[in-house]
Amino acid sequence: MRYVEQYLHVDDPAPFYFGLAVAVSAALEGQPLWGMLVGPPAGGKTEVLKLLGPVANAALDDVTAPGLLSWSDMSRGRPVGVLMRIPNPAFVTISDFSTVLASSQRGLRDQLFALLRVVFDGKVTRSLGNADKMLTWEGRVTLLAACTPAIDNYSSHSDALGPRWVFLRIRARDQAAQRAVLRKARGNTTAGRAKSQALARQLVRLAVARLSSIELSPEFHDAIDNLSLVTCSGRATVPRESSWRREIDGVVDKEEPPRVAKQLTILALCCCAIGLTEHEALSLCRRVALDSAPALRGRAVLMLAELGSFTAAEMARAVGCSPKTAARVLEDLAFIGIATQADSSASRWDAPSDSVAHAKPFTLTHEGQMLRSSLLDDHVLGRAVDAGQAMDEVLVEHPPPPNRGSSADTNASAVADTSSTARAGAMSDAADRMLGLLRAVTTAAWYEPPGQPGSSLMLRPTGTGIERWRPPPSRAQPGDGAARD
After folding, report:
1. Angle at 11 (CA atoms; ends 5, 13), nearest 5 degrees
2. Any idea of the CA torsion for 80, 82, 85, 91, to the nearest 10 degrees?
3. What separation in angstroms does the CA of 222 have from each of 28, 277, 403?
4. CA neighbor of 306 nearest in space, from 401, 166, 430
5. Radius of gyration over alpha carbons of the chain, in Å?
6. In angstroms, how far is CA 368 from the centroid of its own chain?
7. What is the number of alpha carbons within 13 Å of residue 173 lying toward its C-beta?
8. Who has greater pLDDT, 459 or 330?
9. Cβ distance 300 to 428 under 8 Å?
């Protein structure tokens, strides 16, 4: 990473590890690994794909069904397209999957999704036009795509292709990190990028040669199995009416875990091949398991795991969404069986009214507590100090200052009191600390919980896990303590 850091400001190397691991997985047999980098515009997704440019067999800016596979001349029967040009197996990158989602031609988009589903399975058989024979293709394609967070808003993609991907979400940078990015961008990036690309190609080649000698421990496989349950529950489909009320209408559609477990196992194996330890690979897999769920669901699970309970109105303040959106997210978790609404006479199969959803707190169910253990407990690998143990041993309370309150939220009057805004700020900070712990092993930079002017302690990753660190007085800057995501 030091060569990348010569021309880029890297505060989170996990996306680069993720991309390299996906590229290495192209050399394996069987089910492919499809990775999706999700992040804000100009958040660093394209830099990961550029780093892997020389490794990819095809680098696409956009993708369509005819562009992947079609007939050039139906009378002569000559198939053309990207799938016919790439070798088998192949590694393909898509730099902007957002254009596919935003296409106004719904029919062509659905046609592409249907084609990608069978490409994932390794065999395509299509009947097009008046051709007298079937258009066929067979092979193994590994995909690495980049997209904005808008992907969570397209249910058509989630239903058709969602289970085929594993996600890694790139978090938005704060102003200090943005300034560091701007300073680094002033220099000449061409030479540094060329050097990094050459090293990335060499690293992938060496990692592929190491794959056959890597064997994951049985405890690691058990941890991966547990993480697959996290992903399957987190991205389960909860059907809702298309009317303005958006009430739950139907049954939960939850995928089975074998495919996800295989994807996470491949990811971990390839992470070890590029030089990560088993613990670091597990840390990245935990992040991917949670990131593969819709963003707000994952954030709600993290806050429930640390705070124990909170209301929809409090979550809305913490993450910066509307109370109705927060209520629907928590209702989804309750409908799936991860959370339950305390002291509520309604069952999890009934969508509560707005007043009930906003006022009564949600807590993790027994199933949710088991998923929490899968995300945070790392004792199964026998490590003395690690991200999982750090949650129990090192995580400390950060009480807000007395002046942390603000005006009441009129949309959540049922829970508006003198401490509601302070609790919302603490919830936002708690989720940030949790995300920092989950990514600490793969983060080279300091981890400082944002938005905590009253923090007495901070956390930072070390070579063996997480340690407490008390910043100098000059580091603790006063502020209004407003919650921010």
Report:
1. 75
2. -160
3. 22, 17, 46
4. 430
5. 23
6. 19
7. 16
8. 330
9. no
Among residues 81, 147, 76, 146, the alpha carbon closest in space to that of 119 is found at: 81
pLDDT at 343: 60
Across 48-192, where does the E strand assignment appear?
Answer: 58-60, 70-73, 78-80, 90-94, 123-126, 135-138, 141-147, 165-169
Tens of pLDDT, residues 275-308: 999 999 999 999 999 999 999 998 998 888 888 8
Give CA–CA dist 420/235, Å, rounded. Answer: 29
Around 26, how many Cα atoms within 13 Å sit in the side-chain half-sphere?
25
Give the domains, in start order, of the chain with CATH numbers.
4-213 (3.40.50), 295-475 (1.10.10.10)
A 10 A CB-CB count for 282 gives 28
CB 424 within 8 A of CB 320: no
Residues in the chain: 485
| Residue written as token pair 């239903």 | 159
d(CA 76, CA 231): 46
User: Residue 8 in contact with residue 184, Cβ under 8 Å?
Assistant: yes
Give, for 35, the enclosing helix (H) or strand (E): strand 34-38
Lowest mean pLDDT, pick from 100-109, 146-155, 339-348:
339-348
Query: What is the model's pTM?
Result: 0.75
- Reported as a single tens digit per residue, the pLDDT across 230-279 is 999 999 988 888 777 778 877 888 899 999 999 999 999 999 999 999 99
CB burial of 213-229 (b: ≥16 within 10 Å; e: otherwise) equals: eeebeeebeebbbbbbb
- Hey, what are 223's tokens? 């941890």
Residue 118: enclosing H or E segment and its boundaries? helix 106-121
Please give the residue that has the higher pLDDT: either 303 or 462. Answer: 303
Q: Please give the single-letter amino acid code of residue 13.
A: P
* Predicted pLDDT at 77: 66
Rounded to the nearest 10 degrees, the angle between the axes of helix 295-307 and helix 278-291 is 110
φ/ψ of 171, rounded to 5, equals: -75, 150
Rounded to whole angstroms, how far apart are CA atoms 369 and 374?
9
Structure tokens at 273: 């091949």
